[in-house]
Write a structure and sequence with these properties.
By secondary structure, the chain is of the alpha+beta class. The chain has 3 helices and 9 strands. It is globular, with a radius of gyration of 15 Å. It has a 5-stranded mixed sheet with strand order 2-5-9-8-3. It has a 4-stranded antiparallel sheet with strand order 1-6-7-4.
């Protein structure tokens, strides 16, 4: 049986404008130009509806502004859906980014975002090796 890590390395497309939402009980510290290397497989969304699974008070919206190679989840592949725990989640439009992908911070969270929208926004660009 394949693993989430194996699926993530099976790149089957590219996407621009991927998003990810998280909520935490502490603030993250980002700097423009900072390079983030993903330490594990991450699930992002290609314009789908995603619900955060906790009630922490600080919400972050992450956006990758440029094209990035990724694995689009195949919601018709029963084995893949079972491995990913993505049953009945088609409207999330999930894509997987493999561990080791590099993202450069291009826009940092601003207090005004939290005040006006209720969440922080952080933007990234994919960086090829």
């Amino acid at each position: 049986m394949k693993t989430k890590e194996k699926y993530a390395t099976e790149i089957n497309g590219t996407a621009k404008g991927l998003g990810r939402a998280i909520s935490l009980n502490y603030e993250l510290d980002f700097e423009e130009g900072q390079v983030i290397t993903l330490q594990k497989v991450e699930s992002w969304s290609d314009g789908g509806k995603f619900t955060i699974g906790n009630d922490f008070p600080l919400e972050y919206q992450f956006v990758i502004e440029n094209e990035i190679p990724c694995h689009f989840v195949n919601y018709e592949d029963e084995e893949e859906i079972n491995v990913l725990g993505a049953e009945d989640c088609e409207d999330e439009a999930e894509v997987l980014l493999p561990a080791g992908a590099k993202l450069v911070v291009t826009g940092v969270p601003k207090e005004v975002d939290l005040e006006e929208m209720g969440y922080y926004t952080v933007t990234f660009e994919y960086k090829e090796d």
